[in-house]
Design a protein that fits this description.
Strand order of the largest sheet: 1-2-10-7-8-9
CATH topology of the largest domain: Rossmann fold
Number of strands: 10
Strand content: 5-15%
Oligomer: single chain
Cofactor: pyridoxal 5'-phosphate
Enzyme class: lyase
GO molecular function, one term: threonine deaminase activity
EC number: 4.3.1.19
CATH architecture of the largest domain: 3-Layer(aba) Sandwich
CATH class of the largest domain: Alpha Beta
Bound molecules: pyridoxal-5'-phosphate
Organism: Phytoactinopolyspora mesophila
Helix content: 40-55%
């Protein structure tokens, strides 16, 4: 597997230029006063699929040879990678099948179907869904798209970090939530090329720490996978993204699900922004580790907004202990 480079990100930017407008990077005085530092919110939550992953999907499909597009793609996902692939496949007329772990976020499953993709539920968690997707891809001769071991996804996602460093060249830290690690790997690639003094700090849910523990131990590990933040819910590290993170990542923090819930509320109240749990994890890191970010100019990636109905109803009633 080839490690993507900054030129792959620049190429992706050319591909995406006519497909997606840049997303805003905004500052909110109420938010600054809640967290006690200057914070910028990168609004990937307003992408057409409600999450940053669409950058990667569009870049991947645009670069696929026509015969591969004709054979179709198969992905496995808890939702946002699925929407990204379905959106991108529909644009080029490729068939798309998504294997989701059983009982997915119903909003995400419905959105994938609405984009014209086939949804199959298989397995209790992402690992089993992945295994099933692999078998299906072999049977059908379709291209299996990994959630993270895909250079074109990382390169596409990297365009959001080019935007961040153009919008705020003086940012000291960019905080990125991690599941498979494509976002954090992309941030590392772009920061090391265009903003080498900027720290990239990754965040994962403490209840699903596989990427965190893989990075800390320097080897790919498998861990329990129990967070409610499905965008962060992976049970093992991924080789490609871990390799890139090992070279450039400054730090990796864990946050509890109740702090993520508090961060969702803070984003709604202070930034008028609906974030799904994974999309609020960067903000949760600021709430959980204020001393780590004191005096720094911080950009937090608000990576997605695809909260389920129950989750949406709960955002305005965070657990009292967690309310910031
Ligand atoms: C997928 C996802 C993440 C994690 O991104 P990775 O590239 O898998 O590490 C974070 N937030 C949201 C909303 C996501 O959908």
């Amino acid at each position: 597997m080839r490690t993507p480079s900054i030129s792959d990100v620049l190429h992706a930017r050319r591909v995406l230029d006519s497909l997606l407008p840049p997303t805003p990077l905004r500052s909110y005085s109420a938010l600054n006063s809640t967290v006690g530092i200057d914070v910028l919110v990168k609004h990937e939550n307003i992408q057409p699929t409600g999450a940053f992953k669409v950058r990667g999907g569009l870049n991947l499909l645009a670069g696929m040879p026509a015969d591969e597009q004709r054979r179709g793609i198969i992905g496995y996902s808890t939702g946002n990678h699925a929407q990204s692939l379905a959106y991108a496949a529909a644009r080029v007329g490729a068939a798309c099948t998504i294997v989701m772990p059983e009982n997915p976020n119903p909003c995400k499953a419905a959105a994938v179907r609405a984009l014209g993709a086939e949804v199959i539920e298989a397995g209790a968690a992402l690992g089993e869904a992945c295994e099933y997707a692999g078998k299906l891809a072999a049977e059908r001769g379709a291209r299996l798209v990994s959630a993270a071991n895909e250079p074109a996804l990382i390169a596409g996602v990297g365009t959001s970090y080019l935007e961040v460093f153009e919008q705020a060249p003086d940012v000291d830290v960019v905080v990125v939530p991690v599941g498979g690690g494509s976002g954090a790997a992309a941030a590392c690639l772009v920061a090391s090329a265009v903003a080498p003094d900027c720290e990239v700090v990754a965040v994962q849910a403490a209840a699903s720490p596989a990427a965190h523990d893989s990075w800390r131990s320097g080897e790919i590990v498998t861990r329990p996978n129990q967070t409610a933040a499905e965008g962060l819910a992976t049970g093992s590290g991924f080789e490609l993204t871990q390799g890139i993170m090992r070279q450039h990542l400054s730090d990796f923090l864990l946050v509890d699900d109740d702090v993520i819930a508090a961060a969702q509320w803070v984003l709604l109240r202070d930034a008028h922004t609906v974030a799904e749990r994974a999309g609020a994890a960067s903000m949760a890191a600021l709430l959980a580790y204020p001393q780590r970010f004191a005096g720094r100019r911080v950009a937090v990636m608000c990576t997605g907004s695809n909260a389920s109905e129950d989750e949406l109803r709960g955002i305005a009633q965070p657990p009292v202990a967690a309310a910031a």
